[in-house]
């Protein structure tokens, strides 16, 4: 018994080196795990925003299929805000990736192509042809957006066309004649060979960030259809004065 007590005392005074190594290994493993978790979050924050944009598009489609066009329009406009944010956050966190680009394109096609087209409420052959052409214009725009010039797009980015259509629907109370005319105009802008600056609103001058913040605030007044006038003016200013107002040098 005395020998066991002495051995226990010796162990407490000088525990085996393996205990220290085990604790050290456990601590380092936890640190590595935390680092991996932080790195995973950093790489996927922007992807999460793209997924949120996709969710807005799918929800808008569901609302349109159930005749809830007011909600469908605002979901498209929220997707517009999310689309402007995901790229900026990816670049700020140095988390741009091929997966992120594919997610962004798929979300854009869903929200600004399919969901926006349903706002046209195609009931006849001509209406159906217009809807198909609009979707194809968005698809073409997403596939061939590269202009070969840094910080420039070729053809109107589809989120702005969708913003104009959704805002117009809300402001006109769903006037389908006006909406279809505007859809045809947006198709021409999207397939046009004109140049538009990269809309890095959150990475540019302070006033552009204020415009974006205003868009976020306006969402909370979505019960009032006239609130969408903010998005209409924002989008039209980009379409008509892309370089003068919205280029990074402006």
Explain what you see.
With 250 residues, the chain is mainly α. The protein contains ten helices and two strands.
Keywords:
250 residues, mainly alpha, two-stranded antiparallel ribbon, 2 strands, 2% strand
| Overall residue-averaged pLDDT value | 83
Q: Give the DSSP E fraction (strand runs of 2 or more residues).
A: under 5%
Assembly type of the chains comes to single chain
Helix content: over 70%
Cα-based radius of gyration, to the nearest Å? 26 Å
State the strand order across the main sheet: 1-2
Largest sheet: 2 strands, antiparallel
| N-end to C-end Cα span | 87 Å
* Count of distinct strands: 2
Give the SSE string: HHHHHEHHEHHH
Number of helices: 10
Low-confidence stretches: none
Offer a concise description of the structure.
With 250 residues, this protein is an all-alpha fold. The chain has ten helices and two strands; from the N terminus they run αααααβααβααα. The N and C termini lie far apart (87 Å).
